[in-house]
Predict the 3D structure of the following.
Amino acid sequence: MKRSPDHEDEILDIRGHRDPDRNRLTPVVQLPPETALTVVDALSGLVRAAHREEGERTTPAGELKRAQVFEEGDVFMLEPPFPGFFADRYLMDFYDTAARDLCSRMHLHTGLRFVRMMTGPDTTIRVSSLSPITVRPPTGRFAPLSCFADDLPGTPDGVRRERHNVIVPPNAWVDMQIPRGVSHQFNAVGPNAVIDSVHPEESIETLREGMSGYRMMAQTIFLAKDRGPAATCADTGAPETTPPR
């Protein structure tokens, strides 16, 4: 799927990309603000501790580096793969898009993903895709989600691509299933957001794509050259009825 497996900033021309499937999002639970903040702080704290340790004691060359960096936030590989178990699990401490005035780019992966997004008080996550996002019925009591479409910013002159968006509200857990090769984009607005993500094909990808090292960003293909300002991803849109399954 990648032209150069070791290239961590490979760009795919958005004019020719069509998603082979759709992302599926499941609202799980909304929590009291103090409970949600406790959970998010505990998980993001693990990421921050891992990055402090990496800064103090750099991982030796040739060993798996568990504190890594994505466009959306700092990452800690909580559970690495091992022979006979071709999956890993990571935690990501989201950057605050508004504070950095930068949006992450639309992208896709060479393998499928499962992510659980968690927010605390005063924080939302805008989930976007070039295809409509299937929102499944909530597993419990969950307020209607804000869902809307807009034009993807930063496309080449004369090219218009529709972007489909779902807003994860404050103090919420939302699960998302991302098929291989399907576009997606995450941007948190606010200081309290974390992802707990499982990559079921991660080490298979490393072999399939012929990568020389194990870096999670090497499974990413971007659909834009540059990141845009916060104004291009911070809007939460007008609340609408949750889309059909």
User: Anything to note?
Assistant: The longest strand covers residues 24-30.
